[in-house]
């Protein structure tokens, strides 16, 4: 499968496993899982046929490990806009985590902190490089440092997804370090 097809399949999976399963007539279980056969049939019925081998290749080779296949089912690892309970473990975060954003959003973040917007959680990374890549998706990237150690000490609960993304309900401005 060529790189363009891998990207198309990955984006299709993200759209329907994280945000709009109803668009192709699938129903996620409470933990976000759907049968692989159900997904493949729904995708084909809605004009996006894919082979099981393509699906498995995208899951296995995705650099961000966005999806998981287990017991004949598939789900997105995090980033859902639809109600799911991923049953992720609470974890003690490193002292600092990072959040990448576009330069145009910094003023609002200074005032309001980081909010989940249309997702269930704010996404943070343990590596600055990952945050740069995330922020660059929507323009010139800005990387914010999050004092996760202080947040944890103040009672904020951090979750760690299977693909290494740190999740928290919000990050108030007092726990953010802005560049410059």
TrEMBL record:
<comment type="function">
    <text>Removes the 2'-phosphate from RNA via an intermediate in which the phosphate is ADP-ribosylated by NAD followed by a presumed transesterification to release the RNA and generate ADP-ribose 1''-2''-cyclic phosphate (APPR&gt;P). May function as an ADP-ribosylase.</text>
</comment>
<keyword id="KW-0520">NAD</keyword>
<dbReference type="InterPro" id="IPR002745">
    <property type="entry name" value="Ptrans_KptA/Tpt1"/>
</dbReference>
<dbReference type="Pfam" id="PF01885">
    <property type="entry name" value="PTS_2-RNA"/>
</dbReference>
<comment type="similarity">
    <text>Belongs to the KptA/TPT1 family.</text>
</comment>
<keyword id="KW-0808">Transferase</keyword>
<dbReference type="GO" id="GO:0016740">
    <property type="term" value="F:transferase activity"/>
</dbReference>
<protein>
    <recommendedName>
        <fullName>Probable RNA 2'-phosphotransferase</fullName>
        <ecNumber>2.7.1.-</ecNumber>
    </recommendedName>
</protein>
<dbReference type="InterPro" id="IPR042081">
    <property type="entry name" value="RNA_2'-PTrans_C"/>
</dbReference>
<dbReference type="InterPro" id="IPR022928">
    <property type="entry name" value="RNA_2'-PTrans_KptA"/>
</dbReference>
<dbReference type="InterPro" id="IPR042080">
    <property type="entry name" value="RNA_2'-PTrans_N"/>
</dbReference>
């Amino acid at each position: 499968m060529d790189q363009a097809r891998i990207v198309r399949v990955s984006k299709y999976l993200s759209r329907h496993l994280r945000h709009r399963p109803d668009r192709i007539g699938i129903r996620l279980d409470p933990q976000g899982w759907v049968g692989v056969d159900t997904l493949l049939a729904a995708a084909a019925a809605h004009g996006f046929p894919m082979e099981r081998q393509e699906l498995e290749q995208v899951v296995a080779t995705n650099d961000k490990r966005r999806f998981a296949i287990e017991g004949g089912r598939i789900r997105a690892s995090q980033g859902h806009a639809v109600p799911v309970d991923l049953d992720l473990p609470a974890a003690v975060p490193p002292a600092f985590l990072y959040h990448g954003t576009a330069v145009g959003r910094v003023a609002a973040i200074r005032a309001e902190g980081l909010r989940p917007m249309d997702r269930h959680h704010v996404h943070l990374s343990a590596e600055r490089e990952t945050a740069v890549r995330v922020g660059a998706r929507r323009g010139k990237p800005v990387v914010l440092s999050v004092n996760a150690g202080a947040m944890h000490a103040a009672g904020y609960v951090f979750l760690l997804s299977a693909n290494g993304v740190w999740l928290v309900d919000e990050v108030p401005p007092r726990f953010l370090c802005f560049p410059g």
